[in-house]
Amino acid sequence: MREYLNTERIEARKRLVVERTKDFNEIYEVFDRNEAATQSERCIQCGDPFCLNKCPLHNYVPQWLKAVSEKDLEFAFKLSNEPSPFPEVMGRVCPHDRLCEGDCTLNDGHGAITIGSVETYITEEGFKAGYKPEFPGITTDKKVAIIGSGPAGLSCATYLLRSGIAVTMYERSDRAGGLLTYGIPNFKLDKKIVERRVKYLAEAGMELVLNCEVGKDITFEEIADKHDAMFIGVGATKAKKASINGEQAPNVYKAMDYLTAIQRKNFKLSYDKKFDYKDKNVVVIGGGDTAMDCLRTAKREGAKSVMCLYRRDAHNMPGSQKEYKNAMEEGVDFTFFAAPKEIILSEKGNAIAVEVVKTTLGAKDESGRQKMEEVKGSEYRVSADVIIMSLGFDPEVPSFLAENGISTNKWGGIIVNEETHETTTAGIYAGGDCYRGADLVVTAAYDGREAARSIVKKLLR
After folding, report:
1. Long-range contacts of 277-280 (CB under 8 A, 24+ apart)
2. How many other C-beta atoms are found inside a 10 Å radius of the C-beta of residue 441?
3. Distance CA 101, CA 65 (A)
4. Using CA atoms, how far apart are residues 172 and 170, in angstroms rounded to an integer?
């Protein structure tokens, strides 16, 4: 260990841009054994590890780095899979630069350990070696229903099944995974990775009910009557609006609608052909990871030009710097300090341009972030054939919440006890984006895990 003086940080190898933009295959290669061990040997084994503390799941990062450096893959696999329901997913999609790697002690002059890539390596190589997540089978008479099969729901199911509790998961879509399946493109997360984890849960005893929307295809009360507890993890899929003139034009689209359509296309399922943007000038408004996903997807779909409009600068973008860098490499154009004021329409009512105003950053607000200020008289237009709005998401509010005494806050988030994740109705728990608002996969996984632990404690006490 502590080889940081002799060994530099290395990134996982990426496929060449000219190759990767022709398909939707993952762009990063998985570390080999030597690369993973060499990076792990750089860890200085901090007494108070910042990486562990910054991780929402509190992954045993120093411990599994040590195991990898000692070539003990089986122990590393067990350590990695204990606090995390799907570390091979987190290794791919977490914004490591903002979390574990961002707080690595070696950032001070030496470069952080490539924690995310080692995390991916551990589970992928572990699976190849025949290791599997351990489940005891259904050993109790307790049953829990989970509404939503996204990261929060899958995480909750994982920890319930580890305790021998039967799980039935209800998903309104045709595949499990939620955001992991239909919201994150293949070039970041191959869907076989998600399907593999779902398969393990099914083998452990989870019953998966697809194409079943609670409140429509089955009532909430029917589910409640058959189970001892429930977990709600329905995400946040209601797109935020810019509240500007013209945004209702037929060629102004919501980010998640676009990503879902193209994923359906990649699954070789039916999809709306209006989302084919080949040879079109595409403008994406927003600066988060979902915006980067839309931009990079449009490049792969053969758009004539792809531009991102963001009202602040690159440093203040809410998404991962890694994804911004990848989008830059793939030929996306970025226009910073540009806030949309209006969608310009043709006589037929189609969007043909975005009128923006230049912005600048002024004094800091209460949170310490600089306020955005508009520059008077600086308006100009950006032509577009297609406009994608990627301004974030709010939770949808299913009618069955209020009907069953489950309270929500002013923006639709489910109110929970932060220690137990129980809602205002006893025996019903919630977590993920439907509680937090649009957030990270890792925080949804944390909520699902902690809710499961509370359910286990209550049902098996």
Report:
1. 277/301, 277/302, 277/303, 277/385, 277/386, 278/302, 278/303, 279/303, 279/304, 280/304, 280/385, 280/386
2. 28
3. 13
4. 7
Sequence-ordered strand ranges (E) for 19-91: none
Rounded to 5 degrees, φ, ψ at 341 are: -115, -30
What is the spatial distance between Cα 322 and Cα 96, in angstroms, rounded to a whole number?
9
Task: Give the strand pairing for 207-209 and 166-170.
Answer: parallel
pLDDT mean for each 10 residues of the chain (461 residues): 82 96 97 96 93 96 97 97 98 94 92 97 98 96 98 98 98 97 98 98 98 97 97 95 95 97 98 97 97 98 98 91 95 97 97 97 84 94 98 94 96 96 98 96 98 97 83
Phi–psi pair at 107, nearest 5 degrees: -60, -25
Nearest to 392 by CA among 330, 321, 440, 354: 440
Q: Which of 254, 97, 95, 96 is nearest to 182 (CA)?
A: 254
Give the three-class secondary structure for 73: helix
Contact of 179 with 441, CB cutoff 8 Å: yes
* Residue in 440, 426, 437, 424 with CA at minimum distance from that of residue 396: 437
Q: What radius of gyration do the chain's Cα atoms show? A: 23
Give the integer Cα–Cα distance in Å for 346 and 332. Answer: 26
Q: How far apart are CA 357 and CA 353, in angstroms?
A: 13
Structure tokens given for 237: 């899929």
**Residue 245, C-beta contacts closer than 8 angstroms, at least 6 positions apart:** 342, 343
Q: How far apart are CA 361 and CA 368, in angstroms?
A: 12
CA count, 13 A, side-chain hemisphere, 356: 23
Name every residue whose Cβ is closer than 8 Å to that of residue 322 and which is 6 or more positions away in sequence.
95, 96, 97
Cα separation, 305 vs 152, whole angstroms? 36
The Cα–Cα gap between 259 and 185 comes to 7
List Cβ neighbours of 426 (8 Å cut-off, separation of 6 or more).
none
Q: Encode pLDDT of 385-442 as tens digits.
A: 999 999 999 999 999 999 999 999 999 999 999 999 999 999 999 999 999 999 999 9
Closest CA to 291 of 379, 382, 183, 150: 183
